[in-house]
Fold each of these.
Amino acid sequence: MVINKKILIFVFISFIAPRMLHSSGYGTTGAQIVNLNSSARSSALGYAMGAVDGDPSAVAYNPAGLHSVRGHHARLSHLIYFLDSGMSALTYAQNIGKIGTGIKLKIFSTEDTERDAQGEKIKDFGIRFTQVSFGAGSVLTGNLAGGAAMKILAESYDLKEDPVSATAFAFDLGLQIKGMGGDYFGLAVRNLGPEMKMEAAKTPLDRKASLAGAHSMENYIFVWEISTSRQYSVGFQAGVEVEVSDIFKMRVGGNYITGIEFMGGFGIGWDRWKFDYALVPHFDMGLAHRVSLGAVF
């Protein structure tokens, strides 16, 4: 009977989530920082992290994955994007009894130029996006875990004499099921919340639903994820992580959302320290580099 209940919950959310996403139609979405990936490991695996458990970054992908966090995890990440833009992120996770908790801070900043109708430069201005996430995950029953996360989102445009800013709140809900052997399956609904208001304009958040899997065999793990959001109908992500030695892992991934992307990277673990790197080509826009340094204590 317990197994039947798990299946019913999983199927129910699978059918309901896409309808929640598209109930108000497609369109321009606010708080774009929610779509900026800050984890080097996730980037190298095609962003398919919805079923990976025990990773502190689960607070951003599927909070149910926090249920197996043990000890104290700290991670600092930096992303070098194109056009002199960049993003830094700080993640911390620990267990409180049988509950895994996590907090994540992301800050994206860049410079842009305001131009007139003829394309002539008027002035430069700064752009800053900030996201703070709080999440927790716990075993609900048997092999079923659940989690939830809250996000505080902020955008600011430094126009000197007339600065513009906006804030919003959003919530994530997730489930994770442990299957046979080393299999995990995850389901998440993210960015549930009211519209973001920028002066008189209102834009909906990029609500997203995903179904994911993670399969471990011997020295490798294969991950995949199918997702849908306001910005696109269906996307697919997948990646493979191979343990070459006790301290070195190779990763390769790809995704298809609005186009095909391939990425790769590696991870080095020594004692309590972990270093991850990912390289993500963005065609004509250049290369994006992501590095993360973490510690478990």
Amino acid sequence: MAGELERDLVLPCGAVITNRIGKSAMTEGLADKLDRATVRHQRLYRRWSEGGAGLLVTGNVMIDRRYLERPGNVVLEDREGFEQLRAWARAGTVGGNHLWMQINHPGRQATRMSALQPLAPSPVQLDILGLFGKPRAMQEADIEDVIRRFAFTAKCARETGFTGVQIHAAHGYLLSQFLSPSINRREDAWGGPLENRARLLLAVVAAVREAVGRDFPVAVKLNSADFQKGGFTLEECTQVASWLGDAGLDLLEISGGTYEQLALLGHHGEESSYEPPKRESTRRREAYFLDYATAIREASTVPLMVTGGFRSRALMEQAIARNELDMIGIARPMCVDVDLPQRLLDADIDAAPSYEENLPLKGRWFGPTSPLQGVQFLNVQGEVAWFYRQLLKLADGLEPDRRLGILSALGRHLATESKTAWARRARRA
């Protein structure tokens, strides 16, 4: 008898995902100097497509080349690079899976490498190691431009062979910034009460739906909470989830945190308003956001994907059987084990392998318990860099380097980012 993970998922738009495992988005940084997709995208996503997941979500595809999440983002703001996008879409669907383009605007989370003066709802600067410039508060024309760009990018995604789109409204990027009262301090129709702060997200969803049609999957990635004082709360998330259901969304992915509170990677700062659930069962069940999903599930009928911490097959099967969610999101483990979804589906393994032995600085002077925000940020970036170096190996047709040290990974990562940023600036000058 087929397990819960092997069941089809029929979306409200009528599209069918052939199993309940989805690769959540991870930024790739593989674009060329003109911000186009490359052969490395094709190699990487072909391997992931052959790995068995029913759904692959790309990393950030940016809607405006003036504002990048990082150097090496693919940008889709015109019809330049369509052939490269079509090749990426073909490679990423060879396994019969869905391939959804994640579309995004970084807002104030554009580093100085990409934008000296980013945009934001209000001029509230992201103060981490001097990496981010002072943002300019968006005017009405800027907001309307962002809505148009999201819709155009989504339409182009469909034209180039992607089978759906995911609008990124989590992790402290622009749409998430509008939702957060600590960042969105506007006093006009785009700020203040929740219905105003959610107005941009709902306008983007409506414009995207009009651009792609009723039969094309439209998803949103949303924070269950920002996990910081004065930020977006779980109660507000449940209300936004209800509104998204009314808007005809096909899938809602739940995650959490921002650059300041990186709950998305399992890190919660001392100044966070986040309080871990007290139940021992929650700690035993691993998944960071599963308890929050329960509240969201009660507020909305939108199919739900939860990403963050899932490792054991038994927990994944249990969560689906109990109707706590509809899809399991997996990200970083697939940078090392590309066939992990198929092995879980075939019950060849009971849990995703642990990579903790490769991150030897955890818990030491450089660890996540440090009281210094900058040190916490660098520690998290070291972990991210380790997995990113594995992703690059896959994109180059090589095998992951499981023996790579975290400091070496971080150094190489920073060097690659700098080189990519300077090459892009030189080419576009």
